[in-house]
């Protein structure tokens, strides 16, 4: 007699979100978003990192992140979601000064995050909880805007360096405990280099997909990478591109040692993340071929409109 696996409440919610994404085009669901191309080239740390310097490589590209002393490097899902929100607002408004809304609670809700305030004590143990979402988001905003991104690109013909500070300044007026403002709007001023970087090649994404897989930085990275690669390869034939596992680990595996054990752990995490991405983006097609992964050209998750008139 076969056993039926009972879904946990979180798995059931995820499955419900994934099915809803497949049924409605992101434009019709008002969920069309964008992310910066830099996030599809190399990735941010998955977890907190020591020091103020971080690097990732992808072929001839090298992403360098230099943190503001004392603020730490941006890491995890929050800066990824924030950068997608910023990119979407840049494309939508064509403005460099953006308002985050009247409260942290409303802003977190727009990113699909639950809200909680500061540290508290668990009733049973009396031990302090970890920092709530409001405090964690504040920290990541300061870390992100205090960091400088450098994109170093080397090819046979040229070498280029692109300096990409995310913003010129940020003013946060949210109360960390209550998640509300005190009559002043929280403002982010986007730097001109990052503004131009986004508008030169915004990567279309479904914001519902980002919200569904928000708990996994690796799944977020994989989703933006796949939808970008399939978008640019959509007219390039059906030949698969083989990518060595070693190259994928250098690009995505921010927290895995570059040895045989680290490779095995990364492959396991990669497959788990791919299953979540596949649920929200069924057309994505990767094939494990032992020492490499075959990226099979597939339909982009956000398909271009086949019409001459731009929708507003």
Chain-wise SSE layout:
Layout: H1 9-23, E1 32-35, H2 38-41, E2 53-58, E3 61-66, H3 77-93, E4 97-99, H4 104-110, H5 133-146, E5 148-154, E6 159-165, E7 167-171, E8 187-190, H6 192-200, E9 203-206, H7 207-212, H8 217-232, E10 241-244, H9 245-252, H10 260-280, E11 286-288, E12 292-295
Antiparallel strand pairs: 1-9, 2-3, 3-5, 4-8, 5-6, 7-8, 10-12, 11-12
Helix pairs in contact: 8-10
Overall pLDDT level: 84
Q: Say how many strands there are.
A: 12
Helix content class: 25-40%
- Count structural domains: 2
Radius of gyration: 20 Å
The amount of beta strand, in percent, is 15-25%
User: Which strand order do you get reading across the main beta sheet?
Assistant: 2-3-5-6
Features:
alpha+beta; 3-stranded antiparallel β-sheet
What does this structure look like?
This protein is α+β, with helices and mostly antiparallel strands and 312 residues long. It has two domains: 8-29 and 208-306, no CATH class; 37-201, no CATH class. 38% of the residues lie in helices and 18% in strands. It contains ten helices and twelve strands. The protein has helices at residues 9-23, 38-41, 77-93, 104-110, 133-146, 192-200, 207-212, 217-232, 245-252, 260-280, and strands spanning 32-35, 53-58, 61-66, 97-99, 148-154, 159-165, 167-171, 187-190, 203-206, 241-244, 286-288, 292-295. The protein has a four-stranded antiparallel sheet with strand order 2-3-5-6. Helix 8 (217-232) crosses helix 10 (260-280). The chain is globular and about 55 Å long. The termini are far apart. The model is unreliable at 120-130 and 307-312 (pLDDT under 50).
